[in-house]
Write a structure and sequence with these properties.
By secondary structure, the chain is mainly β. The chain has 2 domains: 222 residues, BT2081, beta-jelly-roll domain (Jelly Rolls, Sandwich); 77 residues, Immunoglobulin-like. It contains 1 helix and 25 strands. The strands form 7 sheets. Strands 3, 8, 11, 13, 14, 16 and 17 form a 7-stranded antiparallel sheet that branches. Strands 4-5-18-12-15 form a 5-stranded antiparallel sheet, with no helix packed on it. The protein has a 4-stranded antiparallel sheet with strand order 22-21-24-25, with no helix packed on it. A hairpin with a 5-residue loop joins strand 24 and strand 25. The termini are far apart. 40% of the residues are buried.
Length: 314
């Protein structure tokens, strides 16, 4: 049973979903799981502190370090606490085939203890937010990058369809930076609502994690909600050509209601706002830095209708 829990970090759960739900997005509430007795974690979040539980691994005492901590003043962004994640080396890894030896993570989810112990890496969620925002600062150890990842999915009877997602790199910063990035919804699922959400932070790259890299995060928010009655507005198809682009890129929307295009850089900063004429916007990108960009197409009221990504490569 111990290996079944620790050998699978991400397990897609199946729920009867009553409504969209997101709790403890400001990391104010912390607790110790009475069954696992691991170092305290923010409630409704699962962290690498699970691997420091005295009841799930051997030898005893558990040699694994604590990875997630409360961050009070002066390192909190708002409220009493922020989340501080530290990338650690596992002194004891119960399953090296599926668990990295070096890691630091937090995701919204739960631990089910009956009839057997398992991790749920997502929460019930039925909304279609257009944007995700949060505050973060980051001190890498050597060359490293922190990440935030959101994934909205729906169970189709045999597997999970990804309705929308977004990966957000978090670069080094000695003070808190505000991030705000549109969530990308896949055209094949524009008329579908999710039943669950995976939302996670990582204090290191998955490919070359560096022990000691430290991420502080706070005030996670999902905005730009649409209800069932608004689904038709989210079915707008958009295209960006050429992609990658070097001099200019043309963004086209298949609706007369499209009013403007907002461009965001890789960390969510607004790179420009451009009007749409005849359902099209021609955007010069020769002065843009190399990399990935996100865009949102909005109507005259500022409501996000659709979005996507493109790459600038000179």
């Amino acid at each position: 049973m111990k290996k079944n829990l620790l050998g699978v970090l991400l397990i897609a759960g199946i729920w009867a979903v009553p409504a969209a739900a997101q709790t403890n997005a400001g990391f104010e509430t912390w607790a110790v799981n009475p069954t696992l007795q691991q170092p305290e974690e923010p409630t409704t979040w699962i962290t690498a502190n699970t691997f420091a539980s005295p009841v799930l691994t051997f030898p005893n005492p558990n040699p694994n370090p604590t990875s997630a901590f409360k961050a009070p003043t002066p390192d909190n962004y708002a409220g009493t606490y922020s989340l501080r994640l530290v990338t650690v080396n596992l002194a004891y890894n119960p399953d090296t085939s599926s668990i990295p030896n070096t890691l630091g993570f937090a995701f919204q989810g739960s631990i089910v203890t009956t009839p057997s112990i398992s991790l749920k890496d997502r929460i019930p969620f039925t909304g279609r937010p257009s944007n995700i925002s949060f505050a973060a600062k980051y001190t890498p150890s050597g060359i490293d990058t922190a990440w935030c990842y959101i994934e909205l999915t729906k169970w189709n009877g045999s597997s999970r369809d990804i309705i929308g997602d977004m990966s957000i790199p978090i670069p080094a910063s000695t003070s808190y930076q505000n991030f705000g990035v549109p969530i990308f919804y896949y055209p094949a699922f524009m008329n579908m609502f999710p039943d669950s959400m995976h939302l996670s932070f990582s204090s290191s790259s998955l490919y070359a994690p560096q022990p000691g890299s430290t991420l502080w995060a706070d005030q996670v928010a999902l905005t730009g909600w649409t209800g069932v009655q608004d689904v038709s507005g989210m079915q707008t198809l958009v295209s960006a050509f050429p992609n990658p682009a070097s001099e200019s890129i043309s963004i086209t929307a298949e609706t007369e209601n499209a009013a403007s295009v907002i461009i965001y850089d890789g960390i969510g900063r607004t790179a420009g706002v451009y009007p749409m004429n005849d359902k099209k916007a021609l955007i010069p990108v020769s002065s843009f830095k190399l990399g990935n960009y996100f865009y949102s197409v909005t109507d005259k009221n500022g409501q996000v209708m659709a979005g996507g990504t493109f790459t600038v490569g000179h």
